[in-house]
Structures are given as C-alpha cells and as structure tokens.
Design goal:
- There is one protein chain.
- This protein is α/β, with parallel strands linked by helices.
- The chain has one domain: Spore Coat Polysaccharide Biosynthesis Protein SpsA, Chain A (Alpha-Beta Complex).
- It has seven helices and nine strands; from the N terminus they run βββαββαβαββααβαα.
- The strands form two sheets. It has a seven-stranded mixed β-sheet with strand order 5-4-1-6-8-7-9.
- Helix 2 runs antiparallel to helix 4.
- The termini are far apart.
Length: 204
C-alpha cells in the first residue's frame, strides 16, 4: 500500500481524554491555526485511516463528526485511552495519536502503518531519543489488548512500561532520518508557554 491510499485495516484514534493539568485548560480544544487541536488530529488521521474516532469525554467533543468513546477504566492516562480504543476497534490494527502533537504529518503516519502491517510485532512505534518518552503515536495489533488490560489491572499505566514488555517494531532514529522525517513532528504541548511558542513558530 503506497501513496495517499487510506488503510482499511487500520482504525485511527485521537487520544483526547487527558486532564491537561499543566496546561490549565483542555488541550484538545485549544485553537491551532483555523481549527482546534482535536479537529486537526482527526483531519490528519482521516487522510490515513478509513475509520477515525476520538477517545475522550463525550460531552466535550460533540460536533467533531466522528464517533466518541470514553475510557472504560477512568483515570489511567493514555494507556487507559488505548485500552478503550482497542476494545472498540473492528480492524486488525489501531493507530493511536495524542491530541497534543499538532505537527504530526500524514506522510509519517502512512509510513508507520506500512511498517506495522508488514511486521508480526504487536506494537509499531518510533524509538524515543535518549532520555525521552515514547511519543503517543503508535500502531497496535488487536491482540495487544490483553497486555494492555494486564498492565492496567496491575497498576502499571505508563505507555513506556507497556511497550518495554511488548514485542514491538521500533522505527529507529537512523531509519527516521533516512526517510527524511523531521523530529519536530513529535513536539507536544504540555504548558501554556510551549503552546504559545509552537503557535508563534508554526501557525501562519
């Protein structure tokens, strides 16, 4: 599968259920250019996946034009959202994207999906730089649900810890550079200062 074709075997999910404590307001609803962050991520995912949904509070995202699913196990962060998405997915693969990464490109998401479809691994994700966290931009097979459920039931709700114990296909930094992707696509927004700087630099 190449070019701009969408992946029928991959469901896309925007993770937008976070408390946004450091930002002080709901990150997903912040404007970025002519659209909200959540709408931007929906648009990018729609260019890659035929099925797109939001994981987050239903009342907050009425009017997005896509299905909304709430966490089945509240208060578990992104891994709780991933659990909800995998429970709802009707495809072999699910692509999860954080709502606070507005520079992610559809071209990279297609690349990530191609690698996932070609790999037997349960997870396909970009390896973080030394000392950094895994970006919330990953593809999981349906059967990864059991591992996610086990992590949540044992109180281990960090995405990084889940991935460290899961057979995965890492997109290495060398591979990332060879494909000419910019590292800025993983920039995420956690504070008002980061949000202000990113808008000033990237919103025309």
């Amino acid at each position: 599968m190449s070019g701009a074709r969408r992946f029928s075997e991959v469901s896309g999910f925007v993770l937008a259920g976070g408390a946004s404590r450091r930002m002080g307001t709901d990150k997903a609803s912040l404007p970025f250019g002519h659209e909200r962050l959540v709408d931007r991520q929906i648009r990018v995912l729609r260019a890659v996946c035929r099925s797109v949904a939001v994981i987050g509070p239903r009342a907050r995202f009425v009017g997005t034009g896509v299905q909304i699913y709430e966490d089945e196990i509240p208060g578990q962060g992104p891994l709780g959202g991933i659990h909800a998405g995998l429970r709802q997915a009707r495809t072999e693969f699910s692509l999860f994207l954080g709502c606070d990464m507005p520079l992610v490109e559809a071209r990279f998401l297609r690349y990530l999906c191609r690698q996932a479809v070609a790999s037997p691994a349960l997870a396909t994700v970009s390896s973080p730089r030394a000392g950094a966290r895994y970006p919330i931009c990953l593809v999981l097979r349906r059967r990864a649900l059991a591992r996610v459920q086990s992590c949540l039931e044992s109180g281990r709700n960090q995405v990084g810890r889940f991935l460290s114990r899961t057979p995965r296909r890492d997109i290495t930094m060398a591979e990332f550079r060879r494909a000419r992707f910019s590292g800025r696509i993983f920039c995420n927004l956690n504070t008002p200062e980061e949000y202000g700087r990113m808008r000033q630099q990237w919103v025309q």
